[in-house]
């Protein structure tokens, strides 16, 4: 991509047009200097309807056709987990920058291939873990780094909601990476690794649906400094979906739905709690997209926030937990 192109509006494509793609496209409309140029679905009618709704120029009935469109600068991949590597490699080999929805892929081997291909083709690649870019989460990262309440002693992070079992749903389809761990367990794990780093020891236990997909997973991460992280994902009950950092002199609580735009409550041990509102007026996907656009304009091939090393740590941890609970895809 030459400098003339990157000074212009960045043309986006979206592969896979499910619920999360609608959210991403909604927020893309709010970003200056970015345009939804093309979308692709295996269903042409679905592609046209999506394109009409979000003002895309072109609608394709195959992912391959989108990847060959020379007008596209960046692609957001929102297909089921099991297709992430295949779809990412398709675009990278065409020289198109890729923002791939989390989890990056099914396992470390797949992630390694994606990163190696991005490097070989000198193309930008990033895992779309949107939470990392949200202002409230960036605030908490800074507060913990600055030790406003001292060191973290304990983290409790959960993500749970009840869904009636449906064997035809992607959420429960083991072959597509369905189940609680890869779909939502990644968020509590992300909260632990992004704040406390890699644990020295992990314990985990899981429950299962009748088709072998995990219904819930309880994890304990232990750290060298004696800090502990109690993490949980579940598809069989509604939970608070909070991330609570218990520190030496107080508590930092990311309130319900901690992974998406929300509030943060600071609770000093001997003081008055204070809840911070970050004034969100979008769904929240615009923050990662803006970051990605800037990387593209600066001709970067790797994010300085969601680094390859961090994505590798995340998927290695997911692989480790899967080995502990005997979950194989």
UniProtKB/TrEMBL annotation:
Domain Gfo/Idh/MocA-like oxidoreductase N-terminal: 10-127
Superkingdom to which the source organism belongs: Bacteria
Keyword field contains Oxidoreductase: yes
Keyword Oxidoreductase: yes
The protein's name: Predicted dehydrogenase
Family: Belongs to the Gfo/Idh/MocA family.
Native source species: Hyunsoonleella jejuensis
Transmembrane intervals: none
Taxonomic lineage of the native organism: Bacteria, Pseudomonadati, Bacteroidota, Flavobacteriia, Flavobacteriales
Keywords annotated in UniProt: Oxidoreductase
GFO/IDH/MocA-like oxidoreductase domain boundaries: 137-252
GO molecular function, one term: oxidoreductase activity
């Amino acid at each position: 991509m030459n400098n003339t192109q990157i000074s212009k509006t960045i043309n986006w494509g979206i592969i896979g047009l499910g619920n999360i793609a609608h959210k991403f496209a909604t927020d893309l409309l709010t970003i200056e200097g970015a345009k939804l140029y093309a979308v692709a679905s295996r269903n042409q009618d679905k592609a046209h309807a999506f394109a009409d709704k979000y003002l895309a120029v072109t609608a394709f009935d195959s992912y391959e056709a989108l990847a060959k469109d020379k007008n596209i600068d960046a692609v957001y991949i929102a297909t089921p987990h099991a297709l992430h590597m295949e779809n990412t490699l398709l675009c990278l080999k065409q020289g198109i920058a890729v923002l791939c929805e989390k989890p990056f892929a099914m396992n470390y081997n797949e992630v390694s291939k994606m990163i190696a291909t991005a490097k070989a083709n000198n193309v930008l690649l990033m895992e779309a873990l949107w939470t990392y870019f949200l202002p409230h989460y960036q605030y908490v990262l800074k507060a913990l780094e600055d030790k406003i309440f001292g060191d973290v002693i304990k983290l409790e992070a959960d993500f749970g909601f009840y869904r009636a079992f449906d064997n035809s749903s992607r959420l429960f389809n083991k072959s597509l990476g369905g189940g609680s761990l890869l779909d939502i367990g990644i968020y509590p794990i992300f909260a632990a690794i992004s704040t406390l780093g890699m644990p020295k020891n992990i314990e985990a236990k899981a429950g299962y649906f009748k088709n072998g997909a995990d219904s819930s997973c309880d994890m304990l991460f232990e750290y060298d400094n004696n800090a502990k992280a109690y993490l949980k994902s579940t598809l069989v009950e509604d939970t608070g979906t909070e991330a609570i950092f218990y520190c030496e002199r107080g508590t930092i609580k990311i309130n319900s739905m901690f992974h998406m735009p929300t509030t943060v409550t600071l609770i000093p041990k001997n003081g008055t709690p204070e809840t911070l509102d970050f004034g969100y007026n979008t769904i929240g996907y615009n923050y990662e997209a803006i970051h990605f656009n800037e990387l593209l304009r600066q001709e970067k091939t790797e994010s300085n926030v969601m680094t390859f090393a961090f994505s590798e740590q995340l998927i290695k941890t997911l692989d480790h937990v899967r080995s502990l609970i005997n979950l194989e895809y």
